[in-house]
Write a structure and sequence with these properties.
heterodimer, A: 420 residues, Rossmann fold, 8-stranded mixed β-sheet, 11 helices, 19 strands, B: 285 residues, alpha/beta, 6-stranded mixed β-sheet, 9 helices, elongated
């Protein structure tokens, strides 16, 4: 028998000892005794208490101790399962755009996976799969998401295994890590096996921006001032409604069609219930633009910019090899907002390649060492505790404890009535 | 239960006299000095004959010698009907286990009845019976009067907080012996006793006190008045001295007031033999 929270037994023992101590040294009101001349006793003493060391109410004491013990056992969560004697593997596989050849990932996983093992595929999100997909959808990868999913899955397999081996199959590029990665990895109580996949080569990026807008358009003026406007380029900005030809162009690999309406009638996106104004907008990488912006639409797709209150201001939708980017930020043509340096930074961040700027460089050796960890494999019990797994018998123990406490109340009340 | 249950007590009080504390009024010939002067054989004095006196009481020999008419005056003796009023309130059943105060009160009541009956006086009893009703035994001088009183007293069970004063009105005899702990309607009882004494009655107040009331146990007690459970006081080492002072002052004040009213006040304690207490009550000197 093992305990999911052995410290609860120690706390329960201390509580039981405290109950005994309180029982012996309780200051309580003695039982009232008939005394005909009670009227001659000073009234001020009527509320006094007396300290008793008498070993009285043994049944009550035992009841309290049993109640505490039952609750402590319930919280400690005993595990009566027999020996498991096996190692379960959790294989976390990268299926993001960072992986150069999805087949390599599949081939790496195949010899590792056994019956009962868990395979988790991740890009920006993670989910358990039965087999690794062959075609990544181009989403950015997040090792943090994969690790978090692995820890959740470990709780489920901990009941049928002694140890859990974590295997990370990934390209391990910089864009797949974030500030939470090391913290989430530290929550895994054991070493991990790392299998590196060849990273994808970063596609050539042509930074030129072509703006389809009327003469004197404020956005064009601002981008021209920033030196971004070209005659040809991978980014087209459409200020009026998008034509079918534009959509077809956006399907070409690496092309980005940015639909950035000049006015409220230049887009047919879902409208907001009410039109209001807000004072700022920020891109996904944190570049902000402060101004007064009316909010008319709710753009669809993966958010690439959000208003100050978190609502989506711009969204991106994959289209063939390229993408469509809907920017619902209306700019007052009479303002000088586009001429400010802050706008140049904002526009540069917003007009990046599909899926954002890639960082395909491999993570440094220190980070790799942190991901690999050291020591033995993670024990199933420690993973169960971390995952908050409860013992099936916990509920029964706590139920018994609650019942004993109710019984204790029933036993204690008659004594109080006798004093009152 | 009858007088046989009190056999030892009755034996112990045999020969004890309970004289009247003042001359009694007219009545059947008895053992107590009467306020009447008559023609009994117990010569007292001569008195000059006055018109209306019975000529048969004129001492003719003295008239022959002194040529003056005198009549012989003799002291009459009369019976003194007595009623024992017994307090059966809950405070008398103390201590709860031994009930020594109640036992002593029972014995005092029976003992006084026996002493009065032995002196030729009719004796009765007033108390609340075990059902809470008032039981009045009118004064009788017949042989089984004491047995009847003993039976009624033994059957009573102290309970409740009924006042004692109304029972005084049911006792119409010139002599009253009230056996109580005075923890009920003491003031009203004193007023009623004053009225009886002013009317020529003879009132004996037997104040029953348990030794445990004078000297409570040393442990801490949450004391509850059995006749007023709302009164709960903590008796411990801090309050004991004040309790002793207050209780002592109250007892002294009760004794002073009853004696000032003209009653015979006797305090009896549970550790005193009943026969001894009866003797103290009947023969105070």
């Amino acid at each position: 028998m093992t305990w999911l929270l052995p410290s609860a037994l120690i706390i329960g023992g201390i509580a039981a000892l405290a109950a005994v101590a309180v029982h012996f040294v309780a200051r309580r009101r003695p039982m009232a005794e008939p005394f005909p001349t009670a009227r001659f006793i000073p009234r001020r003493a009527s509320q006094a208490r007396v300290t008793t060391l008498a070993f009285s109410d043994l049944a009550l004491l035992l009841l309290r101790m049993f109640a505490i013990a039952a609750i402590a056992l319930g919280v400690a969560a005993p595990e009566f399962a027999g020996a498991r004697g096996r190692v379960t593997r959790i294989i976390v596989v990268d299926r993001s755009r960072a992986v150069g050849d999805p087949r390599a990932a599949r081939d790496s996983v195949r010899p590792l996976a056994r019956s009962g093992d868990i395979i988790i595929a991740f890009d920006s999100t993670a989910r358990m799969v039965s087999a690794v997909d062959t075609a990544p959808d181009g989403a950015r990868g997040s090792i943090s998401a994969g690790l978090a999913a692995a820890e959740r899955a470990a709780a489920a397999v901990s009941a049928s295994a002694d140890s859990v081996e974590l295997i990370l199959v990934s390209a391990f590029t910089n864009e797949e890590t974030d500030s939470a990665t090391t913290h989430i990895r530290a929550a895994w109580p054991g070493r991990a096996r790392l299998i590196a996949l060849p990273p994808a080569r970063a596609a050539s990026w042509r930074p030129g921006v072509v703006v389809h807008a009327s003469t004197g358009d404020a956005l064009r003026a601002g981008l021209a001032l920033a030196g971004l406007v070209r005659d040809t380029g991978a980014v087209h900005i459409e200020r009026s409604e998008v034509a079918p030809a534009d959509s077809a162009w956006a399907r070409q690999p690496g092309n980005v069609l940015v639909h950035w309406p000049a006015g409220a009638g230049d887009a047919r996106w879902p409208a907001r219930p009410t039109v209001d104004a807000i004072g700022g907008v920020a891109t996904s990488d944190g570049t902000t633009l402060v101004g007064r912006f009316p909010r008319v639409w709710r753009p669809l797709g993966t958010p690439v910019a959000r208003w100050a209150d978190g609502e989506v201001a711009a969204g991106e939708t994959r289209s063939g090899g390229g993408c469509l980017r809907d920017v619902g930020i209306l700019i007052d043509p009479a303002s000088d907002l586009t001429l400010r340096p802050s706008f140049r930074s904002f526009a540069t961040a917003l007009l990046g390649p599909c899926g954002g700027t890639r960082d395909s460089a491999p993570i440094d050796s220190t980070s790799m060492a942190i991901l690999a960890g050291a020591g033995p494999l993670a024990s199933a019990s420690s993973l169960a505790e971390n995952a908050g797994v409860s013992s099936p018998s916990s509920a029964w123990f706590i139920l018994v404890g609650a019942g004993l406490l109710i019984l204790e109340l029933a036993l204690r009340r008659p004594a109080r009535r006798a004093v009152a | 239960m009858n007088g046989t249950a009190y056999g030892a007590l009755l034996d112990a009080v045999r020969g004890v006299h309970w004289p009247a504390r003042r001359h009694v009024g007219g009545g059947l010939p008895g053992a107590h000095p009467s306020t009447l002067r008559g023609s009994s054989s117990e010569f007292s004095e001569y008195r000059v004959y006055r018109q209306g006196d019975d000529p048969r009481r004129v001492d003719w020999r003295l008239l022959a010698r002194s040529d003056r008419a005198y009549i012989r005056v003799a002291t009459d003796r009369a019976v003194l009907p007595t009623t024992i009023v017994l307090d059966t309130s809950a405070s008398m059943a103390f201590p709860v286990v031994t009930r020594t105060k109640w036992t002593l009160a029972q014995e005092i009541a029976v003992g006084l009845a026996a002493v009065a009956h032995a002196g030729g006086d009719a004796v009765g009893c007033v108390l609340r019976d075990e059902r809470g009703g008032v039981c009045v035994l009118p004064p009788r001088s017949r042989r089984d009067a004491v047995n009847e009183i003993a039976r009624v007293v033994a059957a009573a069970d102290p309970d409740g907080d009924a006042a004692l004063t109304p029972m005084l009105a049911l006792a119409r005899t010139p002599r009253l012996a009230i056996v109580t702990d005075l923890l009920g309607d003491a003031d009203a009882l004193l007023r009623a006793a004053r009225a009886r004494i002013a009317a020529g009655g003879d009132v004996h107040l037997v104040h029953a006190i348990a030794r445990e009331e004078i000297d409570p146990p040393a442990r801490t007690i949450l004391a509850e008045d059995p006749e007023a459970p709302i009164v709960q006081r903590m008796l411990n080492e801090r309050t004991r001295r004040e309790y002793d002072e207050a209780f002592g002052a109250w007892r002294a004040e009760m004794a002073r007031q009853w004696r000032a009213a003209g009653a015979a006040y006797v305090e009896i304690m549970t550790d005193e033999p009943a026969a001894h207490a009866v003797r103290r009550i009947a023969e105070p000197r």
